[in-house]
Design a protein that fits this description.
By secondary structure, this protein is mainly α. The protein folds into three domains: 182 residues, 2-Layer Sandwich (Transcription Regulator spoIIAA); 42 residues, no CATH class; 412 residues, no CATH class. Helices cover 59% and strands 4% of the residues. The protein is built from 27 helices and six strands. Strands 2-1-3-4-5-6 form a six-stranded mixed β-sheet. β3, α23 and β4 form a beta-alpha-beta unit.
Length: 673
C-alpha cells in the first residue's frame, strides 16, 4: 500500500486504472475547474420574441419615463414626447430669447439667398425657396428635439429632385406640372420620413455609412458647382444631364455665347464669399461675417445691376417675385398613374438623403453641446414638417449643415431660433420680395458654389484612406458614380458597395489562432501578439462573429484548413502531434441551425482525425440552442469550459495522462504519476 501525495496523482492513477479495464472514455473528475458553462433557463416563446422586438425597435426604451406615473402625468409626457416645445417652453427665459433672436436673424440672412438659390437649382420658382423657409421651421420648432438644427432647403436634395423629375417632365416646357410633381414628391418624402420614425425603423438610415455620405456629398457638390457655370457664364441653353462629361461639353460647345460681364461678377462675388468664410474660420468669433456674406452679396449685386442696367448687357436677373404668404397647395398633388411612380421614387430617394443629412447634423451639434436627441422623434418631426409644407407650397426641407453651423455659432439656445427665422421670412414675403427683382442670377450661382465647396471634405477622404481602404473605395465609388454617371447611380453604387461589405463581414468572419502570453493564463491572437507561445498538442481558434447559414460553410472549411496547417507545422518542426482543437466562442453572439450543423460536422471531422473538439465560453443564446439541438450531449458537457485557460489546463492535463478518444490509434502511455 502506498500514499498518494497529490490530487494530480490521484487523477492519473484513476485514469490508468480505467485504461487497464479497457475503458479509454473515462472523464476525470475535474477539480481544477469546478464551474461549468450554464445553459440559461428556458423562457416562453412570446417573452423571448417580445425581448427581441424591444431590442430591435425600442433600444432607447422610450416608455421608461411612463412607468409608475399617474394617468394625467402619462398624458402630459405623451404630449411632450411628440411636442418637445411643451417641455422646454415653460422654462423659456428672456436670456434664451436674446440669444435665439440674434441666431434667428442671422440664419434668416442666410436663408433668404440660399432659399432662392436652391429653388433655382431644383428648377422651381425662386419664391418656393422662401416659402420653404417659413412653414417647415415653425413645425420643427414644435416637434424637433434638436436645439441647433436650422431648417431649410438643401442643395443635394434640390439637385436630386431636379434630376429625377427632369427625366419625366421638362421644367421649362411644362412648369406647372413640374411644380405639382415636386410638391407631390415632397409629400411622399415626408410620409416616408414620418413613417420611419413612428415605426421605429430609423436604423434603415444607418445603411448610409459615413464613407457613403462623404463621397456622395462631394460628388453632388462637384456636379452642382459645374451646373452653376451656366449662371456664371450667362448661358441660356444648358444640358439637363448632371454628369461631368455632359456639363463640360455643354459649356465648351457654347464658348461664343459666354458673357464676360457675368463671368467677372461671378468670380468677384465667389472670391468675396470664400474670403469671408476664410476669415470666419480663422476667427470663430467673427462667424457673422460669413453668415451675412450671402445676403450682402445679393444686396450689392442688386444695387450694381440697378445702377448700371447690367440686365440689358447679358446679366440675367430673377425678375418679379410675388408678395404674400404661402398659398395652399392641397389640390396640386399629382396622383395620376402616369406620374405617381416618378413622384414616389423621387420622394423616397430625396427623403432618405434629406433625413440622413438632418439627423447627422443634429447629432453632431448635440454631441458638441452634450445633450441627446431622439433619432426616431427627429424623423417624425422632419417628416411632419415636409407633409405640412407640401400642403402650403413648400418643397423638401431638412437641417442643412451650413445653416445649422451658423445657428450654432450664433449661440442659439433652443429651437425658437427657427421661429425667429420664420418670422423674418414672413416679413420678407409680405413686404420685401419686390426688392429682389434685380438680383442677378450669377450672384445666386456664386452663393451655391461657395456653399458646395464646403461639402467637398477632402480631409475626410484622406482620413478614410489612412484608416480603412475599403471605406475609401466606398467613398470613391459614390463620388465617381455621381460625377460620371448621375446622382441616383452614384447613390446606388455607394449603398450597394456598403451592403456588399456588410455581407462580406457576415459571410467571411475572421478566425484567429490564439497563443499563450508568457507567464500568464491569457490567450491572444498570435498575429497581434507575436511573442505568444503555442501550446503543444493544442490548437486554439477564435471565431469572431455570430455563426449563421451565410458563413457556416466557410467556417467549416476554414477550421479544417487551420487544422491542416497546424498539423503540417507540427510535423515539419518535429513537435508533439495535435490532439485537441479548442474553439473560443466569446464573440459568437448567436447561432442558427446551419451553424449547429457546422459544429456537428466539425465534431465528426475531428473524431475521424483522432482529435478532440473543445468549446470555450459559448454565450447564453448559443448554449440554449446547443442544448435544444442535443449538441451538448454529442460533445459532452465536460468538453465545454468557461475560459480558454481552463480548457487548456484540462486538455494539457489529459494530454499528459491519457490520450483522447481515437478509433485508429492506440492510447499513448500515461506519465507524471
Amino acid at each position: 500500500m502506498y500514499t498518494i501525495s497529490s490530487a494530480y496523482q490521484t487523477h492519473a492513477l484513476l485514469c490508468f486504472a480505467f485504461i487497464l479495464m479497457g475503458n479509454s472514455d473515462y472523464v476525470y473528475p475535474d477539480r481544477r475547474c469546478p464551474h461549468r458553462v450554464a445553459v440559461p433557463p428556458p423562457q416562453p416563446f412570446f417573452k423571448s420574441f417580445k425581448n427581441s422586438l424591444k431590442e430591435t425597435f425600442f433600444p432607447d426604451d422610450p416608455l421608461r419615463q411612463f412607468k409608475n406615473k399617474p394617468p394625467s402625468r402619462k398624458f402630459m409626457l405623451g404630449l411632450q414626447y411628440f411636442l418637445p416645445i411643451l417641455e422646454w417652453g415653460p422654462r423659456y427665459s428672456f436670456e434664451f430669447l436674446k440669444a435665439d433672436l440674434i441666431s434667428g436673424i442671422t440664419i434668416a440672412s442666410l436663408a433668404i439667398p440660399q432659399g432662392i438659390s436652391y429653388a433655382k437649382l431644383a428648377n422651381l420658382p425662386p419664391i418656393l425657396g422662401l416659402y420653404s423657409s417659413f412653414i417647415p421651421p415653425l413645425i420643427y420648432a414644435m416637434m424637433g428635439s434638436s436645439r441647433d438644427l436650422a431648417v431649410g432647403t438643401v442643395a443635394v436634395a434640390s439637385l436630386l429632385m431636379a434630376s429625377m423629375l427632369g427625366d419625366k417632365v421638362n421644367a421649362a416646357e411644362n412648369p406647372t406640372l413640374y411644380l405639382h410633381l415636386a410638391l407631390t414628391a415632397t409629400f411622399f418624402a415626408g410620409l416616408l420620413q414620418a413613417s420611419l420614425g413612428l415605426l421605429r425603423l430609423g436604423f434603415i438610415v444607418d445603411f448610409l455609412s459615413h464613407a457613403t455620405i462623404v463621397g456622395f456629398m462631394a460628388g453632388a457638390a462637384t456636379v452642382v458647382i459645374l451646373q452653376q457655370l451656366k449662371g456664371v457664364l450667362g448661358l441660356e441653353r444648358f444640358t439637363h444631364s448632371t454628369d461631368i462629361i455632359s456639363v463640360l461639353r455643354s459649356v465648351f460647345s457654347q464658348t461664343h455665347e459666354w458673357r464676360w460681364e457675368s463671368g467677372v461678377l461671378g468670380i468677384g462675388f465667389l472670391f468675396f464669399l470664400l474670403s469671408t468664410r476664410y476669415i470666419s474660420k480663422r476667427r470663430p468669433k467673427l462667424f457673422w461675417i460669413s453668415a451675412m456674406a450671402p445676403l450682402t452679396s445679393v444686396i450689392l449685386g442688386s444695387l450694381l445691376v440697378y445702377l448700371t442696367h447690367a440686365e440689358k448687357h447679358g446679366v440675367q436677373v430673377i425678375g418679379n417675385l410675388k408678395k404674400g404668404l404661402n398659398p395652399p397647395s392641397f389640390g396640386d398633388f399629382v396622383f395620376t398613374s402616369s406620374y405617381l411612380s416618378t413622384a414616389m421614387q423621387t420622394g423616397m430617394v430625396t427623403g432618405i438623403i434629406a433625413l440622413a443629412e438632418g439627423i447627422a447634423v443634429g447629432r453632431s451639434f448635440a454631441m458638441f453641446k452634450q445633450y441627446h436627441i431622439d433619432g426616431n422623434k427627429e424623423m417624425v418631426a422632419i417628416g411632419t414638417m415636409n407633409i405640412v409644407g407640401s400642403c402650403f407650397s413648400c418643397y423638401l426641407t431638412t437641417g442643412p449643415f451650413s445653416r445649422s453651423a451658423v445657428n450654432y455659432n450664433a449661440g442659439c439656445k433652443t429651437a425658437m431660433s427657427n421661429v425667429i427665422m420664420a418670422i423674418a421670412l414672413m416679413f420678407t414675403l409680405l413686404f420685401l420680395t419686390p426688392l429682389f427683382h434685380y438680383t442677378p442670377l450669377v450672384v445666386l450661382s456664386a452663393i451655391i458654389m461657395a456653399a458646395m465647396l464646403g461639402l467637398i471634405d477632402y480631409e475626410a477622404a484622406i482620413h478614410l484612406w489612412k484608416v480603412d481602404k475599403f471605406d475609401f473605395m466606398v467613398c470613391m465609388g459614390a463620388f465617381l458614380g455621381v460625377v460620371f454617371a448621375s446622382v441616383e447611380i452614384g447613390l446606388v453604387i455607394a449603398v450597394a458597395v456598403s451592403v456588399l461589405r456588410l455581407l462580406l463581414f457576415v459571410a467571411r468572419p475572421r478566425t484567429f489562432v490564439l497563443g499563450n502570453i508568457p507567464n500568464s493564463t491569457i490567450y491572444r491572437n498570435v498575429e497581434q501578439y507575436p511573442g505568444t507561445n503555442s501550446v503543444p498538442g493544442i490548437l486554439i481558434l477564435e471565431i469572431d462573429a455570430p455563426i449563421y447559414f451565410a458563413n457556416a460553410s466557410y467556417l467549416r472549411e476554414r477550421i479544417s484548413r487551420w487544422i491542416d496547417e497546424e498539423e503540417d507545422r507540427l510535423k515539419s518542426a518535429g513537435e508533439t502531434s495535435l490532439q485537441y482543437v479548442i474553439l473560443y466562442m466569446s464573440a459568437v453572439g448567436n447561432i442558427d441551425t446551419s451553424g449547429i450543423s457546422m459544429l456537428e460536422e466539425v465534431k465528426k471531422t475531428t473524431d475521424r482525425r483522432g482529435l478532440k473538439l473543445v468549446l470555450a465560453n459559448p454565450g447564453a443564446e448559443v448554449m440554449k440552442k446547443l442544448n435544444k439541438s442535443k449538441f451538448i450531449e454529442t460533445i459532452g458537457q465536460e468538453w465545454i469550459y468557461l475560459t480558454v485557460g481552463e480548457a487548456v489546463e484540462a486538455c494539457h492535463y489529459k494530454l499528459h495522462t491519457c490520450k483522447p478518444d481515437s478509433t485508429d490509434e492506440e492510447p499513448q502511455p500515461w506519465n507524471n504519476v
